[in-house]
Design goal:
heterodimer, A: about 120 residues, mainly beta, seven-stranded mixed beta sheet, four-stranded antiparallel beta sheet, B: about 110 residues, six-stranded mixed beta sheet, 11 strands
Chain lengths: ~120, ~110
């Protein structure tokens, strides 16, 4: 079974630009979450999508948005990029469809390294 | 607000040593706790998942325990190897219908040959 995939793996943008990151979850997984990882703040939750609906949102400005498609693939968009947005953006998926503890395990992709110049 | 703490931030041990990594959390109303491994510049690899009703989980040389009442979890690594060198993160999931994980800052482990 293929793991979580994220594209692109690396991005370099300049301040003021916008960027779209993509995440394909493990087949059959309906929940997709996004996290930002920086050396100073560690891993911080951005948002979670389940069945095309945003189910939970972290404390990030409105410049950060996302969506989920009917095939569970998700995209994350950051508009008006700032230097502080430079980070590793990680996507995680879990089943969450069936009852049972094992379906809550979260699996992470390799991440997208975003550098804002 | 849930806070997860991992101390120390870094640890260096000689190969072959058994070691324990600690994780503490402030809110005991958790659904599960997950331990991850992260190699430099890479994503997270899930190591063990412990449900709130469980006390421990084992996988190979790894054993994770959970004490909800005291807000603590430990990851025990037996017979450490240089390949175990990585950052180890613990994360807790709150009860409720969502997938948000709250992470600790991680412990960077170095196993010396």
């Amino acid at each position: 079974k293929a793991g979580v995939t994220q594209t692109p793996r690396y991005l370099i943008k300049t301040r003021g630009q916008q960027v779209t990151l993509s995440c394909s979850p493990i087949s059959g997984h309906r929940s997709v979450s996004w996290y930002q990882q920086t050396p100073g703040q560690g891993l911080q939750f951005l948002f979670e999508y389940f069945s095309e609906t945003q189910r939970n949102k972290g404390n990030f400005p409105g410049r950060f948005s996302g969506r989920q498609f009917s095939n569970s693939r998700s995209e994350m968009n950051v508009s008006t990029l700032e230097l502080g947005d430079s980070a590793l953006y990680l996507c995680a998926s879990s089943h969450q469809l069936l009852a049972g503890f094992s379906y809550n395990e979260q699996f992470f992709g390799p991440g997208t390294r975003l550098t804002v110049l | 607000k849930q806070e997860v703490t991992q101390i120390p931030a870094a640890l260096s041990v000689p190969e072959g040593e058994n070691l324990v990594l600690n994780c503490s959390f402030t809110d005991s109303a958790i659904y599960n706790l997950q331990w991850f491994r992260q190699d430099p510049g890479k994503g997270l690899t899930s190591l063990l998942l412990i449900q709130s009703s469980q006390r421990e989980q084992t996988s190979g040389r790894l054993n994770a325990s959970l004490d909800k009442s005291s807000g603590r979890s430990t990851l025990y690594i037996a017979a450490s190897q240089p390949g175990d060198s990585a950052t180890y993160l613990c994360a807790v999931k709150k009860t409720g219908a969502n997938s948000k994980l709250t992470f600790g800052k991680g412990i960077t482990l170095s196993v010396r040959p």
